[in-house]
Amino acid sequence: MGETTAILTPDGLMHAYVARPVAERAPAIVVIQEIFGVNAVMRGIADDFAGDGYLAVCPDLFWRIEPGIDISDRSPGELKRAFELFNEFNVETGVRDIAATIDHARGDPKCPSRVGAVGFCLGGLLAVLTAARTDADACVAYYGVGIERYLDEVRKTVTPLLIHLAEEDQFVSKEAQSAIVSVLGGAKNVAIHTYSGRDHAFAREGGDNHHPADAALARERTLAFFRAHL
Hints:
8 strands, 8-stranded mixed beta sheet, 37% helix
């Protein structure tokens, strides 16, 4: 069972869901939401990372639009609202909020200063930008939407970065995937895994595109990556 904390950002207080590990001291992972807010899926992911020994913090990045968004992909009305939020969301302020979350995690007396980030969908893009723009120690992006627009910036980062791409992603074109692999695939600090036959959100448990085997494989790779860098 997690808890709620308040994080000071340059524009005010933002709330976040926090899941704590059993260990007295542990590195932290910022869990970056999809377009559905800090919902049961995101809280479950944070809980899982806590179970793996990490301090997991999931900030409410939609707080400027509407605090406390907690919806799913299971109804047309919720999907409509999710895409409205996606269109209203400001990526620049979102990355600044993630930077504030990283600082907050490092200030936790039980965190020994190393902090990573993992994001899904919209959060996948934000995780890549977190690698490029913040002092995070390692970042993981699941099926990030729009990464191809920032390749010139991202290829300059030295932060360890892991990217999971779904080859049949309906929101990330084949051309975009090719550009991502072409520009970032040769970087020493970047690892890219592609998943044949998988669509967007293949790791979202309970979702229409969930693929248990590849979700488990991506999670194993993510945990190995964080173990190596955090």
